[in-house]
Amino acid sequence: MAERFTVLIVGGGGREHALGWKFAQDPRMQKVWFAPGNAGTAKVGTNLPMAATDIEGITRWAERERPGLVVVGPEAPLCAGLADRLREVGVRVFGPGAKGAQLEGSKSFCKDLLVQQKIPTARAGSFTEVEKALAFLESLTCPIVVKADGLAGGKGVVIAPSRKEAGQAIREMMEARVFGEAGTRVLVEEFLAGEELSLHAVTDGKNLALLPSAQDHKRVGEGDTGLNTGGMGAYAPAPRATPELLGEVEEKILRPTLAGLNQLGIDYRGVLYAGLMLTAEGPKVLEYNCRFGDPETEVLLPLLGSPLWDLLVAAAEGDLGRVKVQSGSGAAMTVVMAAEGYPAKPVLGQRIQWGEETLGTAIFHAGTQEGKDGVEVAGGRVLAVTGWGKDLKSARDRAYGAVGKIHFSGQHFRRDIGHRALEKVVYEK
Asked: Pairing state of beta strands 186-190 and 124-127?
């Protein structure tokens, strides 16, 4: 019997919409489901009324429907063991088990692995007691980085300009629990100066397939100012990521990481997403994520020349060596349109007005839902508007051109995405 080219994508954001969009372009694809999806994914496939963290509900559904592949988008269900449960019932899944997902779920686990494998990273201490964390501050020069150990939606990191502010961040995380249980343990780190780089590698536990480099924009405001967010935009490839640099990262960072996981008995099949700082001493690891980045996925997939199905299935089956990754030429850029008040207190429910779609663009829904009068805002990051072209300038022009045709009350977005690569060329209203 011929293989069923059907896929369940777990999650409901822009990353998941982009994955479904890419899968749907494959003429072999019969069916795409999303759990739970959003207003945009409903146009690509079928949304299921299940939360991404409903481990048993998703497992029961997959056991019954037998999709050809399950792709887990967010980190929370991976850390909760969704991939393990699916494998237990014989469903093919792309994503690490709970032990491997600790790479993102516990910053202390990640740091210990990096140190053990002699992988370049910031000097840090891990603490469950406030007073010991405060004492460690005296050994660091300012600014100082304070991180909640657990999952905090990309917001559990504070860069403190002084020891006083670092101490305040420690107390807020550990005593006031501003990030909930994620702040039970904190990491206190030296600050690394340089330019950030996102690098994704698909792995089957033994082999690595590198995707194009990307650069995210975490801060809410232009010039990288304001609060940290889940990401306000991204572009790919990053000019700083030369073939020589990528080779160095693979040999000194990614492969030793995979070796360290193997030594712990962890068969890691999924994405190794390294957040790197390009320092004067060379690339160093800021953090690892155990899934595709968001909004990086929205720029990586338009540049991927290989069928996504072939790549992820080969990784899931432990046979990545049979697939060669092909990256298309050109560049891509994503601009995130956010709700009023994001990231502190996003205002929801506004109706979104659309313009006509243009060549070389895609609008990926992140926080949307169908309302009585059309599609409306349902989350802080509302849309990830992506443009691609022969170079970054043309990708930028297409992305911002598409942004200009979309309107909802209180919308805001950064006008300088890609500024490091484009010498601070800024889009004007």
From this structure: antiparallel
pLDDT tens, position by position, 262-320: 999 999 999 999 999 999 999 999 999 999 999 999 999 999 999 999 999 999 999 99
Q: What is the pLDDT of residue 2?
A: 58
Question: pTM here?
Answer: 0.94
Who's near 101: CB < 8 A, 6+ residues apart? 75, 78, 79, 83, 95, 290
Architecture of domain 129-184: 2-Layer Sandwich (3.30)
Domain 129-184 and domain 193-322 have a common topology: no
What's the CATH code, domain 8-95? 3.40.50.20
Handedness of CA 171, 174, 180, 186 (dihedral sign): positive
Please report the pLDDT score of residue 429 as a whole number: 37
List the domain boundaries for the chain: 8-95, 129-184, 193-322, 331-403
Q: What is the mean pLDDT of residues 382-407?
A: 97
pLDDT at residue 422, as a whole number: 84
